[in-house]
Design brief:
The chain is α/β, with parallel strands linked by helices. The chain has one domain: Aldolase class I (TIM Barrel, Alpha-Beta Barrel). The chain has 8 helices and 13 strands. Strands 1-2-3-7-8-9-12-13 form an 8-stranded parallel beta sheet, with helices on one face. A 3-stranded antiparallel beta sheet has the order 4-6-5. α4 packs antiparallel against α5. The longest helix is centred in the middle third of the chain and has 17 residues.
């Protein structure tokens, strides 16, 4: 999850067709949370059914899984950060593209390269599963469509390759939990191969220029809701999660976000932009 990119380039795909009609069937929201640190003990998470952790720095997993929690590990599939142990190898292979100007130290990946697919399938995902995670949380897969839009000639086929990577992961790991962060343009091609899709910054976000939390503009909010609800209508078993960012000292604002997203038929969580705190759900 890259909050800094949450508004940037998100709606270059405004012409994306939204299929399906009618109201979305409502179900009880699933208590879930995302936490990218390792300071809290396992019992801090006992009130959640589903958890997303950073794969390389996280609370102990076994006590949570023993209590029936589902836990997945973060993996960036459209970018590689310099701090990752495999960064130098991927760079030497020539698979990396330019640095993401909105996330310094992280470089776009040419997902069309079969060596990237091989590394993901044979090394990166198995390493996450060996750590005890039950699945993966796939981030930065909105980058390939962005690159293809930016330079259609040089990046032709990026979107298709990203979708193919997701489908390849499902074939190779049929029992693994697979969660897609955004990647809205991939949804029609991959929604049968994933278990959940997360809408990030659907209702509320953090403005890094103004250094404050605030509402997403109404057209952007509505567009995302329509896309997520349409995916749920096409694939009723697909769980829809939302992650919105808000001031942790504003419990009323947090409660309002939970109320709105639950009414949309989603399972919401509200976090700080750093994703290193566990913000309690409204009671």
């Amino acid at each position: 999850m890259r909050p800094v990119q949450s508004v940037v380039r998100l709606f270059a795909w405004l012409a994306l067709a939204v299929t399906g009609s009618g109201a979305m069937a409502q179900s009880a929201p699933m208590p879930w949370a995302v936490y990218y640190a390792n300071d809290l003990p396992p019992n801090a998470f006992y009130g959640y059914d589903f958890l997303v952790f950073e794969a390389e720095a996280h609370p102990p997993l076994e006590p949570l899984i023993d209590r029936g929690k589902k836990v997945v590990g973060y993996i960036s599939l459209g970018e590689v950060e310099q701090f990752r142990s495999y960064f130098a190898e991927v760079k030497a292979e020539g698979i990396l593209r330019q640095e993401n100007e909105n996330w310094k130290g992280s470089f776009f990946v040419d997902v069309r390269d079969p060596r990237w697919t091989k590394r993901v399938v044979e090394e990166l995902v198995p390493d996450i599963l060996r750590r005890g995670f039950q699945g993966i949380f796939m981030d930065t897969l909105d980058n390939p469509p962005h690159l293809e839009r930016t330079d259609p000639k040089a990046n032709a086929g990026m979107t298709e390759a990203a979708a193919r990577l997701v489908c390849t992961l499902r074939r190779n790991f049929p029992g693994m939990i697979i969660v897609l962060n955004r990647g809205y343009e991939l949804l029609p091609s991959v929604e049968r191969d994933i278990d959940m899709v997360l809408g990030e910054s659907v209702y509320a976000d953090y403005d890094f220029a103004e250094k404050k939390y605030g509402r997403v503009d109404e057209p952007t909010y509505r567009q995302q809701v329509e896309i997520l609800q349409a995916a749920a209508r096409r694939q009723p078993k697909l769980k829809i999660l939302t992650l919105d960012y808000w001031d942790p000292n504003d419990p009323k604002g947090i409660a309002d976000i939970y109320r709105v997203q639950a009414a949309n038929g989603f399972s919401p969580y509200v976090a700080t932009v750093e994703l290193d705190e566990l913000i309690p759900r409204p009671k």
